[in-house]
Design a protein that fits this description.
A hairpin with a 2-residue loop joins strand 13 and strand 14. The longest helix has 18 residues. The chain is α/β, with parallel strands linked by helices. It has one domain: Purple Acid Phosphatase, chain A, domain 2. It is built from seven helices and 14 strands. The strands form three sheets. The protein has a six-stranded mixed β-sheet, with helices on one face. Strands 7-5-3-2-13-14 form a six-stranded mixed β-sheet, covered by helices on one side.
Length: 246
């Protein structure tokens, strides 16, 4: 994919909408709405690097109603001219056709690469890079299995949501101590491979820890989170930066 005639590119992740108490969720939605008021303009592009929702699963005719306000925001931003891309995170268990066909979001099940201003971007949520994290890797394989997802479709959504909340919290518990020296080194190694293969920028998420680092001749950014730090990547006028929404 090659982007041309754009103004600015924005990169966010890990809002985990739906996991916090009601008062905190209202605050998060208000912050996200304010972000959209500043960025949702023609010529701008927003890349969501996964886990915008704490749990996302599409049944054939049902979606989680707890995300109605967020979906209205996303739809309104697109109506204002913003182009939105969504990469699956480890809490996005089934990206079906709803986000694409009804909201207008381009969805990607894994990674995304594109060029802009002759710069090559590589985007990935970042889960599963630590090959010694056996518990999480097993859970990911179990939940992402196409066979298991077809079985899940047969469960009544009310029951399915209870199971989903449990699995989502289990994934979070397993990853509660994921930002350590080992995991950051895993990110550095992954980014180094991509940069040495021709990418200029690698953007990832998942650990909820915002940072920007020079890797060889490129840049690695972790976009952080949108429940505490409210950090995001921005590419404008040929420069990629990590910023905090205030």
């Amino acid at each position: 994919m090659n982007l041309s005639n754009f103004n600015q590119l924005f990169f966010i992740s890990d809002a985990h909408l739906g996991i916090h108490p009601a008062e905190r969720e209202i605050y998060k939605i208000d912050r996200i709405a304010a972000f959209g008021r500043q960025t949702a303009r023609p010529g701008n592009h927003l890349f969501i690097l996964g886990d915008f929702f704490d749990f996302w699963y599409e049944w054939r005719t049902v979606i989680p109603k707890r995300h109605f306000k967020a979906l209205c925001l996303l739809s309104g931003w697109i109506a204002n001219g913003l182009h939105i891309y969504y990469l699956a995170g480890n809490h996005d268990f089934r990206l079906g056709s709803f986000l694409r066909d009804e909201i207008g979001i381009d969805t990607y099940p894994d990674t995304l690469e594109f060029t802009a201003d002759d710069k090559r971007f590589h985007l990935f949520h970042g889960d599963g890079l630590n090959k010694k994290d056996y518990g999480y890797l097993f859970l990911k394989k179990l939940l992402r299995s196409k066979f298991n997802q077809k079985l899940f479709l047969l469960i009544h959504p009310d029951i399915g949501m209870k199971i989903a909340d449990w699995s989502s919290s289990t994934s979070r518990d397993i990853q509660s101590d994921r930002e350590d020296t080992s995991s950051r080194n895993d990110y550095r190694r992954y980014a180094g491979v991509k940069i040495n293969s021709g990418c200029d920028y690698v953007l990832m998420a998942h650990t909820h820890q915002p940072y920007i680092e020079n890797i060889d001749n490129g840049l690695l950014i972790n976009t952080g989170n949108w429940y505490k730090d409210f950090t995001y990547g921005r590419y404008s006028s040929g420069e990629l930066t990590l910023e905090k929404f205030v």
